[in-house]
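Troubleshooting: if your tokenizer reports a length mismatch, compare your output against this known-good record of 371 residues.
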Amino acid sequence: MSIPFTILYFSSALCAHAQFTDFDESDKSCRDLGHCRSIWDIIWSCLVVIFTCTWLAIHPNIPKQGKGRLWKFGRSAGAFIAALIAPEVIILTAWEQRVAAQELLNTIPKEENWTLSHAFFAHMGGFMIGERDSDEAYILHPMEIGAYLRSGRLSFTQEDIQDKSKGDSLTKGFVVIQTGWFILQLIARAVERLPITELEITTLAFAILNCVTYALWWHKPLDVERPIYIDAIPFEDTQGDGVHTGYSKTSLSIFDSGIDNSQTSWNGLVFIIVAVAFGGVHCIPWSFQFPTHAEKWTWRIGSIITAAFPPVMPVALSTQSSILRTIIVFFLFSLYVLARLALLALAFTTLRSLPPDAYTTVHWTTFIPHI
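Known-good structure output:
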């Protein structure tokens, strides 16, 4: 949690210094200082939502034991970059994990007092069978949980599970308040017919997806680094539960659901709906003022590609020829990545030429707590 707030501190210092440079154009177009915002205010509010809230919304699985801090940071940074380029994939992962956790919880007797936090913890590699830091320790499979519950080896309360989480009420409150404020002030600008920048639209798309991601992972412990080690049950005590299934994973990938196969047929539909909605938000600036026609058409084409990619990809995957399918998928994926990068770049470059009213604030939104 300290990493995003460190970024916030240095970014805030940079923005505060930059407000005294010639780059701040608010004085040229906004005379009422009580209702003005600078270009750096726009950038700052957007960066907080895009970077900090995205970082805090990601709930990775427990990392492989024995790895150093640099490796763990690189793992988290990679997930963060993936969330910036393809946030809809992160939502699909969160959906799969939520479904898997809910299905596991449904199989647990109510008298065990298990919660979604327990189920998430089990699916993220939270329980390992064997001695601490042993190379032979392996992750407890969901099929084995019933027998281990009866044995008393999983008698952990929700507080025990959440105690291992790096998230807390302050973290969750920060994400909810900051994202809520950002969306509310954009709605207020639209109601008062004040211009909204392309960067704010891009941030809105991330904010909406971050809200969905955070809701799906609300009960999942955040940034847990160490699992709970438990002793194995003797074979004769399994009572036919299939405990010794041959499942011997020692770690999970950062977003593995903890199951071998998908537990739901809704995954493809969820991915398409979320991705089309994400691309659709980028189509909002279709008629906005752009510095040049080239930038306007680049934005339009990038928005269309972003929205059209999800429905087209299943068709490409159904191609009979494996060679042709590989070529088509590679081409479409490359085109999608280029479109996403172009939209991100344009979101910042278009700030160099904003209409005067873009610097006007909706006064009452400044009283809502935010950074």
